[in-house]
Amino acid sequence: MDPYISISELSFRRGERLIYDRLSVDFPRGKVTAIMGPSGTGKTTLLRLIGGQLKPDQGSVVVAGQRVNELSRRQLFELRREKMGMLFQTGALFTDLSVFDNVAFPLRTHTDLPETMIRDLVLMKLEAVGLRGARDLMPSELSGGMARRVALARSIAMDPELMLYDEPFTGLDPISMGMIVKLIRALSEALGLTSLLVSHDVEESCSIADYLCLVSDGRVIGFGPPDELLHEGNDEVRQFLRGDPDGPVPFHYPAADYRQELLSS
Amino acid sequence: MQMRNVELTVGAFMIMGIVALVLMAFRVSGLTQQATSDTYTLKARFENLAGLNERAKVSMSGVTIGRVTKVYLDQEWYSAVVEMEINADVETLTRDTSAAILTAGLLGEKYIGLTVGADPEYLEDGDWIEDTQSALVLEELIGRFLFNKAEEG
Amino acid sequence: MMVQRLGRRGVSAMQSMGRAAILFYRSLLWGGPGSAGWRDLLQQIHAVGVRSLSIIIVAGFFVGMVLGLQGYTILIDFGSEAALGTMVSLTLLRELGPVMTALLFAGRAGSALTAEIGLMKTTEQLSAMEMMGVDPLKRVITPRLWAGMIAVPILALLFSTVGIWGGAFVAVDLLGIDEGAYWGNMQASVEFYEDVVKGIVKSVVFGLVVTWIAVFQGYDSVPTSEGIGKATTQTVVVSSLAVLGLDFVLTAIMLGGV
What we know:
The complex is a heterotrimer. Chain B contains 3 helices and 8 strands, in the order H-H-E-E-E-E-E-E-E-E-H. Chain B has helices at about 5-30, 30-35, 140-150, and strands at about 40-45, 55-60, 65-75, 80-85, 100-105, 110-115, 130, 130-135. The model of chain B has no long low-confidence stretch (mean pLDDT about 80). The chains are: A alpha/beta, B alpha/beta, C mainly alpha.
């Protein structure tokens, strides 16, 4: 396996809480990997650590051969500009710019291309997400699914090598969700992207991911192709993938013995 | 909002600012009076300025004919020296012109009042006004008054 | 307990000041007014300056009229109502123009800036910019800081101008003071450098400080609707206090002969 991102011995704490404790994991180049796990385990935090928006307390994050956590501000911006794209949960479109200008924003900021060429590029990206006709709309006029597709077009505008998706399926109707699933898969294959997506929708993630990476309590509890994990993973992994209400992750929050507590009063 | 409109309104905004600045300069702080082109300098020695400032008016018969440009202490004589610029068109100040430090109103600002004499020759650039009269200092007046009273009594 | 709480508050206040200083350092020091494009600067001057114009002009006119009326009743007792023009203009140019403008600006434009940037943070627009390799400090904060520094002195000048004419309206047209006395005395005692220029210097500082506080509160806000509301209030409170405090310091320095 040829890792595009490699994380080793990473520890990260937020306040008193230890979110990652010496986490080590590699993400393969050119594949779609879904990071999954129960809510509140810091999956989004992991994306931010990879994108350099957060700095780990210990350990290292290496993306495309560069140690993200040791780059200067300038180098970090350069790495993001040239190699990374990120799709945010809400889309994060610039509300004061039209759809066209949103997609053109990275191109206008980072390149000196003439306006006619920018126009062609933007229309190509918008065509790829099926929204070429919506170019003159403002973000407030878009539905949630459309906003996310525009944001996707914007994040691939600079042709990144790595795409990070933060909860791309949350809060979408089934049709929009189907479109996003198809787009992520299609873009990854067509552009040879390395993709990381954070989600807790098991079905959708399994349908597009080459690998699953299950995270719980700051550790990786399972890594591998979806089928393999479903059949050969340990109990905790299987519980999560099948959605069992009780198992290694208990239904009951830790408490004193039930009988004793009732009788003691 | 269209970029064109933004440019237009911001342009108008800037111009309003400049107009306000110009009004401040000429209408409010009266820079025009200073900007008179030709002047000549006279000097005068006073015992006490009592609050006469640079840029104070120099007037004759109530008409402003110049401004004080410099105020300093003559270390040899231990007296104040005032340099003033007089408008060049006021060219017939006689040699025995006298200068007095006066006050506009009871609490108003100090200015220099000039009164011409009868000398046939005129003052020229850099000349000294010999006949000067210092400002009335209230404390000194009171002091003198009390002293006289004490002598009488 | 008390001491501990106080200590914690002190530490967190110090931390925010540190973060505010870093924001200032990264956004203003390395970017000239046009570093994010002149288009952005113009748009921001429009947003904070042009849109504050009406409130500034109306407020300036009323303040000038009140000064005229109050000054008249005070000065008439000393028989020196001819000094009314001097009093109105000096009060406006030295103090009320810069200070009132900064306070109104904090309420009108400062709070809007905080809300705008707070919303950009809440909707992850700032994060999205970062991940595109665009520094939001340079792209979003820098043009706003410059716009504040440019717009506030202009607004303050307009405030004073309108106020002086408002005072003239009351003094000359309503109270019957001689027009020549009003303007003449004013021209004799107002000095362009001492009064006008120093007033402008003051308002440049106020503009920078108010805008700085506003953008910082937005940038540092807790990204929820509650957090934005709190940050907006903070902007108005903190920047008003900062303006009044700074006014004293600046006045002391300027009277000290700087």
